[in-house]
Design a protein that fits this description.
Blueprint: H1 4-33, H2 46-95, H3 98-101, H4 103-163
Protein name: Dynactin subunit 3
Organism: Dissostichus mawsoni (Antarctic cod)
InterPro entries: DCTN3
């Protein structure tokens, strides 16, 4: 009888372990499912539930990575904007200078000067046309005078040759 005791004890220990695991599993299932246990008394499919949960977590992790990338891009954008803002703030004294504040006053003066400039350009163009016309008249007059002097020279030469004052060339 003592020979069977260790074997019996071993079986009882295994049975206790199995019962213990079964009780722990039931406790775990009751925590997970609470009062929502299947009414059809079918065993709960934990593997499928865990797979869905894993897929959801993976999806969330992927979205998190995309959000990190977007945050990095936004961070870079914000850094460049901050640098530009610092540059503007360093140039702010120039923007607040009297020269910039006087721009509207100078703009009206510049507008008057532009109108005067346009008027003078028109006058210059008219005078240029007049000068061009005078040069054309002058050139025509010089051409005619040159032609007249050439004719007079020819006539004088012919008269001198006829009188014998000048030898014939």
């Amino acid at each position: 009888m003592f020979g069977f005791c260790p074997l019996l004890a071993s079986r009882m220990d295994k049975q206790l372990e199995t019962d213990n695991l079964e009780m722990r599993l039931q406790t775990l299932e009751s925590r997970i499912y609470g009062g929502r246990r299947n009414k059809s008394a079918k065993p709960a499919k934990c593997a499928e539930s865990l797979a869905r949960i894993q897929a959801g977590l993976t999806n969330t992790a992927n979205k998190r990575e995309r959000v990190k990338i977007l945050h990095k891009k936004k961070e870079d954008f914000l850094l460049t904007q901050a640098a530009l803002l610092e540059q503007v703030s360093t140039l702010q004294p120039l923007l607040d200078s009297n020269y910039i504040r006087d721009v509207p006053e100078h703009a009206t003066k510049l507008q008057r000067l532009s109108q005067i400039h346009i008027k003078e350009q028109d006058q210059t163009e008219a005078q240029s046309l007049e000068v061009k016309k005078l040069f054309e008249e002058y050139n025509k007059m010089m051409f005619l005078l040159s032609k007249q002097f050439t004719q007079w020279d020819e006539t004088l030469r012919n008269l001198e040759e006829a009188k014998g004052i000048r030898p014939v060339e």
